[in-house]
From TrEMBL:
Belongs to the bZIP family. The lineage of its organism: Eukaryota, Metazoa, Chordata, Craniata, Vertebrata. One of its GO terms (biological process) is defense response to protozoan. Residues 1-61 are annotated as: Disordered. Keywords: Activator, Cytoplasm, Differentiation, DNA-binding, Nucleus, Repressor, Transcription, Transcription regulation. Residues 1-22 have a biased composition (Low complexity). It comes from Pseudonaja textilis (Eastern brown snake). This is Basic leucine zipper transcriptional factor ATF-like. Residues 50-61 have a biased composition (Basic and acidic residues). Its main location: cytoplasm. One of its GO terms (cellular component) is cytoplasm.
Length: 126
C-alpha cells in the first residue's frame, strides 16, 4: 500500500509542477504583452505629439502668409486709390477724351479701350 501512495504523491507533484510551469509561462506571456502594449502606446503618443507639432508649425506658417497677403491687399488698395485719383485728375485735362464721345468707365480700364496710337500721345505722358 505504501507503494501506491508514493505513486499518487509523485503524480500529484508532476501535475503541480506542470501547472506551475504553465502559470509561469502564462505570466511571462502576460508580462511580454503588457510591455509590447506599453511600447505601442508610447509610440502612439509620440506620433500624436509629432502631428500636433507639425500642425502648429503649419498654422504659424499660414498665419505669416495671411499677414503678408493682408499687407499686399492694403498696398494694392492704396495703389488703386492713387491711380483712380490720377485718372480722375487726368480726365479733366485730357484733350483726347474731350474730343471723343463719352466712354463708360469700365471700358477705360480695359487694355483695348484706346488704340495704340493714343498710348504714345502726349496725353499719356503727364
Amino acid at each position: 500500500m505504501p507503494h501506491s501512495s508514493d505513486s499518487s504523491d509523485s503524480s500529484s507533484f508532476s501535475q503541480s509542477s506542470s501547472s506551475s510551469k504553465q502559470d509561469s509561462s502564462d505570466e511571462m506571456r502576460k508580462v511580454q504583452r503588457r510591455e509590447k502594449n506599453r511600447i505601442a502606446a508610447q509610440k502612439s503618443r509620440q506620433r500624436q505629439t509629432q502631428k500636433a507639432d507639425h500642425l502648429h508649425l503649419e498654422s504659424e506658417d499660414l498665419e505669416r502668409q495671411n499677414a503678408a497677403l493682408r499687407r499686399e491687399i492694403k498696398h494694392l488698395t492704396e495703389e488703386l486709390k492713387h491711380f483712380s485719383t490720377v485718372l480722375n485728375s487726368h480726365e479733366t485735362h485730357c484733350s483726347i477724351l474731350q474730343t471723343q464721345p463719352t466712354v463708360p468707365s469700365e471700358v477705360l480700364f480695359t487694355p483695348l479701350a484706346f488704340p495704340q496710337s493714343h498710348i504714345s500721345s502726349p496725353c499719356f505722358q503727364h
